[in-house]
Amino acid sequence: MTVRVGILGATGAVGQRAIQLLDGHPEFELAAVTASESSAGLSYGEAAKWRIDAPIPESVADLTVRETDPDAVPDDVDLLFSSLPSGVAAEVEPGFAEAGYVLSSNSSNDRMADDVPLVIPEINPGHLDLLEVQRDERGWDGALVKNPNCSTITMVPTLSALAQFGLERVHVSTLQAVSGGGYSGVTSMEIIDNVLPHIGGEESKMETESKKLLGTFDGAELDHHAVEVSASCNRVPTIDGHLENVWAETADDVSATDVEDAFRGVESLDLPSSPDPLIEVFDDPNRPQPRLDRMVGDGMAIAAGGVQETASGVQYNTLAHNTIRGAAGAAVLNGELLASDGWI
Prior knowledge:
Layout: E1 3-8, H1 13-22, E2 28-35, H2 44-47, H3 58-61, E3 65-67, E4 79-82, H4 86-98, E5 102-105, H5 130-138, E6 143-146, H6 150-162, E7 167-176, H7 188-191, H8 202-213, E8 216-217, E9 222-223, E10 228-235, E11 242-250, H9 256-264, E12 279-282, H10 290-293, E13 302-309, E14 313-320, H11 324-340
Parallel strand pairs: 1-2, 1-4, 2-3, 4-5, 5-6, 7-10, 12-13
Antiparallel strand pairs: 7-11, 8-9, 11-14, 13-14
């Protein structure tokens, strides 16, 4: 069955990446795109300042851009991918869910809400059952699901592999690509020959979202994992790919081999966008590197390497493509899980 989908905020960087990923998708047909009032009524080709290094799909270029309003989106659209700025999303997403639309959202608002599933499909697919609570509490016919922050999604699949060893504390230092700030988010004069040692709000997102993703849902409420996470987030002059240095402390004594085997043991899913393997483990201590490894698994896999034993656990490096696995691809994959599990 083909699922008709739409994109809210389709002209932005994440919306453009979603359009690229949906082109030729085996299950989804892109039927609607929305943007700001100034773009509404134009063709997508006229409205979008296309930045992706591939042509706009012809079928999308001719689509008429709609207003970001439930009344403007066709009733036969089954699933919406939201790539709106978080302030706008906080205002409009509840209205779409109340109108009966199911949303897979990349926007940061409501990620930590008690009744909103925050999901990485290979890690915590069962958290989708929280939608029953959401619908009961909010009276929605639709639903709202979030994917995590791009830096969180790079690290958490590896942490989930370490949970079996009694994961207690995590320290992470990120080296995040400029595309994570959007096309105009960081100027060239700021970042060339430089590193920005702070990204507003990023540390707290990693520290809180990780605990929610690794938590357990008992059918009524979600208990967050007890792991302590401390993050330092830095912007570096790479275009795509967030590289992270992780120090993990575990209750059990673990070897580098134990950790590498655990990473390789994290299973993929039988969904079109889920890569196999989910975590690509490199033996070379010089890998992963953003330029060489951000497209492992077509940009949907997590790369890991440099695993070393420490006095209290392990240290390793992990990498993911921040606009594919960390944003648009994550939302598309959550949409695939929603469809597979019968939520739409």
